[in-house]
Amino acid sequence: MEVLLLLYSVLHVRLYASVLLGLLYSVLFEVLGLLLLLRRTPDVGAAAGGGVGPALLHLCAHVIGIHLFIMSEVRSRTTFRKVGHAIMHGKELEVEKALKERMIHSVMPRRVADELMKQGDDEGGGGGENAGKRYSAGRKKTSIPRGQIIFRPFNMKRMEPVSILFADIVGFTKMSANKSAHVLVDLLNDLFGRFDRLCELTCCEKISTLGDCYYCVAGCPEPREDHAYCCVEMGLGMIQAIEQFCQETRETVDMRVGVHTGTVLCGILGIKRFKFDVWSNDVNLANLMEQLGVAGKVHLSEATGRFLDDRYQREDGQVAERAGQTVMEKLKGLKTYLISGRRPGAPCGCWPDSQPGACAGPHTPPDLLARGGASASAEPPPTHGRPDRTPGVSPGACHSPRAANGLLSPLSLEGVVRASRTSLCDTLQEREKKTGTGTSGTAALDHSALLLRAKQPGEKSDAHFVEVIREDSLMKDYFFKPPINKISLNFLARPLENAYRSSYQKEVKTQVRVQTFASTTFSSFLDVLLSCFVFLALTLACFLPVLVGSAPAAPAALALSPLAGLLELASLVLSIRMVFYLDSVMRCTRTLLKVVSGWIPRHVVGAVLVSLPAVSVFSHFPCVTMFLCCATILAIIQYCNFCQLSFWMRSLLATSTGAVLLLLLYSPLRRGNLTALSEADSAQAAPDPAPDPGLSPLDFLLHEAILAFFLLLLLVWFLNREFEVSYRLHYHGNVEADKHQLNIQNMRDQAEWLLGNIIPIHVAEQLKLTQSYSKNHDNVGVIFASIVNFSEFYEESYEGGKECYRVLNELIGDFDELLRKSEFANVEKIKTIGATYMAASGLNVQQVAESEDAHPHAHVRALFHFALEMMGVLDDFNKNMLGFGFKLRIGFNHGPLTAGRMDSTGLECQVQVSEESHGVLHSMGMEFDYRGTVNVKGKGQMRTFLYPKREGGDSRPGSQGKLGAGGIAIAGGPSPTADATDRRSESVVEATGQHPGHAEPKEAREEGYRDAAHPPGPSPLQGPYPPSPAALQPEHCAPQVPFMVQALQEAKGEEEEADELTNLNEEFYSRL
């Protein structure tokens, strides 16, 4: 019997091989035994009848062995496959998470993104949808007592010194005038890709692109000593890059670059569609340096020049010749310089040679950097926006500031252009294959993950499956470092041990359906079924002599067998009900099953069931025979069953059974029968024995029994321990697989949540496969909503203006909360540009088509209602929070357009719409006041309407005079609108007139985007707000609270100067 047990449990061969070897052993054993028996007795019938009982014992041994073999294989293979699938799924999620993080890091620094995801995990409960509610959403300001202000989390800090660079493409309007939207997007993507590469090499932090304006910073969010050198080198490189761009595309454009150094506030605003940005008056001054600069040179302020040495060719800025005396007064005597390049032989100032480790980062391979001249590598660099930090740059790349500058040689740019034609997945995979380093900030992607990503589901073979699993540390820990106590076999972690002990009962309570053999309840059913079979076979084998009439029946056996049979039958019925019919059992039966499935009751019931075969055998021991000893051995082997029970209990019960057998063998009451049995067997087996007066046959039998049972118990203890370890590892593997998959899923959900708050989901899905995104829209609604008096409220005397932006963050957060309403499902926030809020509707064509409202302009109505809700939120903010008295001005337009100019030509506390939008909204029941014609740059005279309608107002065109408002307005046009979103900015780029480029003229961007982008303080080039007649002011518009009396007084005094500056600025750009 021990040989059969070893064959099935220790010898790891195929099941059919184990069965064949086991049958061969059983047949040979019984045949040889029968031949010996025929030698002792000539009665062939008696000998054949005596072979039935041993045959049943062999059958039981085979059944036990096959059961142990199958369940061990099922558990190990199931665990292997589940853990393997968890690892493979985890690696797929890691790749997806890395792709999303790459897109996230393209619009904000890794450090800021990690803080946001960690904040979402800590406050939102693990990422995903919950993390999206971390800002808390849902608090009502009306429930907050006055004087108690509860702010949202605010991610902003003050840094200095920081160098800020603004760069503008001179001639962009002319270049875009004769190009389609798709071509224009491709050109900008190519050019900005080169700039992004430069950002990487010069260790600058890209902030954003505003139309054709590109701006970045150095020394923020990570401080750097060579920040000024980084920005200057970045500017020189941009000038050379656009020269090469013109040579390759035969365009005629140039770069105007401005740099200033000072203090900035860096962080994010709002809770949706946020992006990393910088704010301060010094940022505005850097913007002014660019506007007053000269094409082909870097214009920098005296504050930046203090951080530079004499390695650059520097000349006086001569701002007065280009801007006039008024601007010089605004500059307050600030001296400026123009830099055309480095002096011959002067080294770069921003490389790690000047500041060791300044550009170091763990996620960019060194071969990505040495691309100067002929040493350029063919590997595509990351061109998806904000690049990873680089550990070094070839020193030879910086010997010449212009054509000799190896940073942007044609060979070095070849990789950039080629990468722009490939997907992010391919770029990431190519880099991973070459370097073996990860791209994710939290979880490195090994080679096997990318192999998995590269294969289609039908191509994932078992060999690849094993290759992926072999490289994972989770499998190594599972096989070689099980977290269990080596003596008690309990899990080292007490919560895990408690969960393991309650897992069976939990499965019964939750009525989990049986799906595989490895199921806990189904495994228990098979154990009970095997116990019933062994009990039945042993009972039948022990009763065979009684049935053939060769021996009397033992009274104890007659009494115990029916009772034990009833217990076995009841346990079998309950197991069947538990496995197959648990959902239809009566309440009392279900309660009984829940009680019995507990840890201690289950052990008590299991101990009884596993001991019944041994009790049945012992009940036949009035006459000790060799057959009963073999039956007892089989009953001991049966203690290897019920692997879910503690191995200590089963092994101790097996040891107790063996000890009882030995006591019976040594018992004086049984010694007479045993002596007669041994003498008879000895006489039959050896007719002519050699006399040995020192030893009797009984002594041989007792010593052999002691040795046999010792070896048997040793094997049972060993197998019980291994089976429980295997069972616990099966449970632990399932738990770890689920935990591993959940962790990866949470990390992916965090990245997905953050990405969804940066880029629209439908755009992000497309960006996984392509380098850029562009699409023509025929019916899009756009609004610009500006807090017109925020610049009057802002001041830097307290914490550099940080608290002012905290208030703005609260207000923008309230606007973002509106987007969670179901009626605004088709409204998308595009971005915030300082104190200007931009939103659009109708960008997701599929979502609009699937909406319940089938009206073609339903999303336009929803956007207009959203604009009205914004005014209500602002009114509530003014009344219940701090009484700031902010004023909102909203411009609205729709159609095949790109919004840009309705906002700043509008009136405070009212929504201004174009004539086309008025026609659509009026048909939906909206009433407007006709304002008159407004002069809009790029569009000429436009008729506009105001909402809400004042009492007695006239909505008919021509009923009012012309209002010349100047400034910026939104323009509609007959051609399709192109909304282009690349990895660096999520703005809607629109097209009016015959060509898409007409939507983004230089004057519009300069006076619209940039002035709105950095509202702190009155800009020297900013035009005045349009007059607001008292008759057009609605009653709900809150009066201005005098928080900044000095600022208000200065604003009144500067109104005339601003008019003059606007005219000078227009003349200046007309000359250019």
Description:
This protein has 1072 residues and is of the alpha+beta class. It folds into 3 domains: 2-83 and 489-744; 141-422, Nucleotide cyclase, GGDEF domain (Alpha-Beta Plaits, 2-Layer Sandwich); 777-1015 and 1032-1041, 2-Layer Sandwich (Alpha-Beta Plaits). It has 36 helices and 17 strands. Strands 1, 2, 3, 4, 5, 6, 7 and 8 form an 8-stranded mixed β-sheet that branches. Helix 20 (520-548) runs antiparallel to helix 21. The longest helix has 60 residues, at 697-756. The relative contact order is 0.11. Residues 123-148, 352-459, 675-691, 898-902 and 955-1072 have low confidence and may be disordered.
Defining traits:
1072 residues; alpha+beta; Alpha-Beta Plaits; 3 domains; eight-stranded mixed sheet; 36 helices; 11% strand
Mean pLDDT: 70
Number of strands: 17
Q: How many H/I helices? A: 36
Helix content: 40-55%
Describe the largest sheet: 8 strands, mixed
General form:
elongated
What share of the residues does DSSP label as strand, in percent? 5-15%
Poorly predicted spans: 123-148, 352-459, 675-691, 898-902, 955-1072
Radius of gyration from CA coordinates: 42 Å
Number of domains: 3
Report how far apart the termini are.
Answer: 102 Å
**Structural classification:** alpha+beta
In terms of topology, how is this protein built?
Layout: H1 2-9, H2 15-40, H3 44-49, H4 52-105, H5 110-124, H6 128-131, E1 156-170, H7 172-176, H8 181-201, E2 205-210, E3 213-218, H9 227-249, E4 254-267, E5 277-279, H10 281-291, E6 298-301, H11 302-305, E7 312-316, H12 319-323, H13 325-331, E8 336-342, H14 410-419, H15 424-435, H16 447-454, H17 462-470, H18 473-480, H19 494-509, H20 520-548, H21 555-580, H22 587-596, H23 599-618, H24 626-637, H25 647-666, H26 668-685, H27 697-756, H28 761-767, E9 773-777, E10 780-787, H29 790-793, H30 802-818, E11 827-833, E12 836-841, H31 845-850, H32 858-880, E13 888-895, E14 911-914, H33 915-923, E15 929-936, E16 940-947, E17 977-981, H34 1002-1013, H35 1045-1053, H36 1055-1071
